[in-house]
Structure to design on (623 residues):
């Protein structure tokens, strides 16, 4: 294991930003794993820390096959994490909306360009990502449907689902998208936590990355088989919104089955305590995403269901 | 007449309401031309608040001269303005990156779609922004290259100092202006002053320009006195100066002054050691049209923009 500073930026009033990379194995750039890019991505940081520890052990045991180098960058924006912010503290910009960056540009564009310079050229790029909607997901792998991508590779992580995302204009500035433009196969892994640590789903994420690296011939490692992944398109997901605002009481969570007409959640009058609205399942399906906030707004998307194709 | 464009129930006993004020002129609502004046998409940019107030005040004072329809949307992101944040506070989301939105999307996207639906069919739209709270910016119209040919004749009428035709990034495809231009509503973006403040002289300048534009369109029935033509600039005329080291930026050159190449712009100093860590000078002859006001800088922080070259 080699620990080194892969990017540095001078700060006026606090410690300089130091982005640390851990590399394992030698030779060709095989796989790169990137953790927390936002200040609330504590679970993503934790997953990488566990991965660094495990890869260190595996390397000592000679389990990294020849001519394969793995780079892990556990955190990029810990300066935000250290002051309780989500984005770059001095200008509130989101580093994962600034790729490919510009080494002569604005501060966070320089960070993005410096990171991309270090993580490019790998065969596989894996980002531990978070979603902007607060809620719980079934752990899954996401790929951008850019035409460069081979969706079946995503199934090798052995998580339950692989979601193919059609890129929106703002997606073009993410690390995932820019990796793919440079012919790195890029994957984003979503676990069901962000600002808190869920050890169980973190373990699952670490295992899925080790499984993928093993299946690609980068590691010699005995991992259990995981799931047989289903490939989903966004159009396979059915969004259920809340018809009114108030206190949100959820009846189902990610992974639960729902039948057409089942009550998925209730909305309670915030002052008077009675149920003012019931949210029914519009289809037979499986809960893929569930709103977690105890409060809900009118029209807010509170569930995403995977429609059952057969019963 | 004040109406709600969107109304969404917030968690507890409150609705987020995006309002517009419609002024209907002597031609009624049938075939009359309509202009939309929108601002406040970024909650910390307040220059447009004064413009909306002054525009509404002058229309009300002289309502018999109004022929067409003027829709004023002073607060597209009302909760951001209330909280003094650029984005929508509860989503931590830049509202100008979610257009055209979708009716059945997430709340923010639903709101964006309602705004587009309300503005669709207008003959013109002006979306007013301020610079960031960190900067001071001369009044300018920003046009993308793709729309420049169609929009430049309108942009010239707005009494701004500058029209900047820029190469657009792909992220700008999710802006209000791009979405409206795509839907056949010619939309001009104005950028002026700075965030979290009001520069009344700039606001008055823009309100004069809006009346000029409306007069040209037959929406306002009163001639407007002549005014100087704006400078027309492209990216190749604009030189940026960025901080090379962290510290405190102390400008020496004044905003809106003409500089010679090599003339001092300012310095970056270290408050702890008393040293000057960097001295900066103008990279070209030209007009200092953007200047940093917030002193704390990182490597890469924008300090100044200078309009060089012939620029016309
Ligand atoms: Zn703005």
């Amino acid at each position: 294991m080699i620990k080194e500073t892969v990017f540095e930026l001078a700060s006026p009033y606090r410690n300089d930003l130091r982005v640390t990379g851990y590399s394992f194995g030698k030779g060709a750039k095989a796989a790169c794993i990137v953790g927390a890019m936002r200040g609330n991505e504590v679970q993503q940081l934790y997953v990488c820390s566990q991965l660094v520890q495990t890869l260190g052990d595996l390397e000592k045991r000679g389990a990294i096959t020849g001519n394969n180098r793995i780079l892990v960058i556990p955190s990029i924006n810990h300066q935000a994490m250290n002051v309780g912010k989500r984005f770059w503290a001095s200008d509130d910009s989101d580093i994962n909306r600034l790729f490919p960056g510009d080494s002569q540009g604005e501060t966070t564009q320089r960070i993005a360009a410096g990171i991309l310079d270090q993580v490019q050229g790998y065969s596989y790029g894996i980002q531990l990502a978070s979603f902007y909607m607060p809620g719980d997901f079934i752990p899954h792998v996401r790929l951008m449907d850019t035409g460069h991508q081979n969706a079946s590779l995503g199934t090798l992580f052995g998580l339950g689902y692989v979601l193919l995302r059609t890129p929106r204009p703002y997606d073009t500035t993410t690390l995932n998208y820019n990796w793919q433009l440079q012919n790195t196969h890029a994957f984003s892994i979503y676990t069901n936590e962000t600002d808190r640590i869920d050890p169980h789903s973190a373990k699952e994420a670490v295992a899925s990355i080790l499984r993928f690296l093993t299946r690609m011939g980068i590691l010699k490692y005995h991992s259990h088989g995981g799931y047989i992944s289903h490939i989903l398109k966004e159009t396979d997901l059915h969004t259920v919104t809340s018809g009114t605002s108030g206190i949100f009481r959820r009846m189902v969570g990610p992974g639960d089955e729902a039948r057409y007409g089942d009550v998925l959640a209730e909305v309670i009058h915030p002052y008077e305590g009675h149920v003012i609205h019931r949210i029914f399942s519009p289809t037979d399906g499986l809960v893929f995403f569930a709103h977690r906030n105890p409060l809900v707004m009118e029209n807010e998307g509170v569930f995403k269901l995977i429609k059952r194709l057969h019963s | 007449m004040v109406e709600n464009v969107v109304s969404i129930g917030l968690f507890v006993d409150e609705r987020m309401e995006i309002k517009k004020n419609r002024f209907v002129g002597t031609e009624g609502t049938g075939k009359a031309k309509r202009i939309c004046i929108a601002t406040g998409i970024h909650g910390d940019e307040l220059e447009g608040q004064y413009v909306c107030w002054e525009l509404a005040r002058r229309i009300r004072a002289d309502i018999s001269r109004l022929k067409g329809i003027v829709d004023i949307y002073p607060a597209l992101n009302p909760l951001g303005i209330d909280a003094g944040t650029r984005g929508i506070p509860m989503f931590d989301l830049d509202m100008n990156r979610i257009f055209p939105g979708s009716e059945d999307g997430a709340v923010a996207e639903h709101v964006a779609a309602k705004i587009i639906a309300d503005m669709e069919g207008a003959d013109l739209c002006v979306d007013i922004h301020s610079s960031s709270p960190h900067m001071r910016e001369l009044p300018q119209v920003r046009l993308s290259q793709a729309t420049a040919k169609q929009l430049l004749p309108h942009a010239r009428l707005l009494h701004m100092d500058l029209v900047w035709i820029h190469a657009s990034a792909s992220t700008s495809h999710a802006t209000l202006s791009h979405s409206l231009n795509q839907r056949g509503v010619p939309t001009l973006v104005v950028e002026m002053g700075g965030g979290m403040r009001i520069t009344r002289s700039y606001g008055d300048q823009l309100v004069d320009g809006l009346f000029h534009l409306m007069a040209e369109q037959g929406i306002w029935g009163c001639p407007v006195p002549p005014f100087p033509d704006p400078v027309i600039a492209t990216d190749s005329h604009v030189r940026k100066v960025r901080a090379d080291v962290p510290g405190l930026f102390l400008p020496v050159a004044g905003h809106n002054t003409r500089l010679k190449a090599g003339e001092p712009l300012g310095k970056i100093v270290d408050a702890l050691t008393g040293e000057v860590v960097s001295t900066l000078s103008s990279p070209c002859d030209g007009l200092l049209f953007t200047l940093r006001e917030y002193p704390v800088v990182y490597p890469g922080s924008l300090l100044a923009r200078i309009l060089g070259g012939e620029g016309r």
User: Anything to note?
Assistant: Chain A has two domains: 2-228, 236-306. Residues 42-60 of chain A form the longest helix (19 residues).
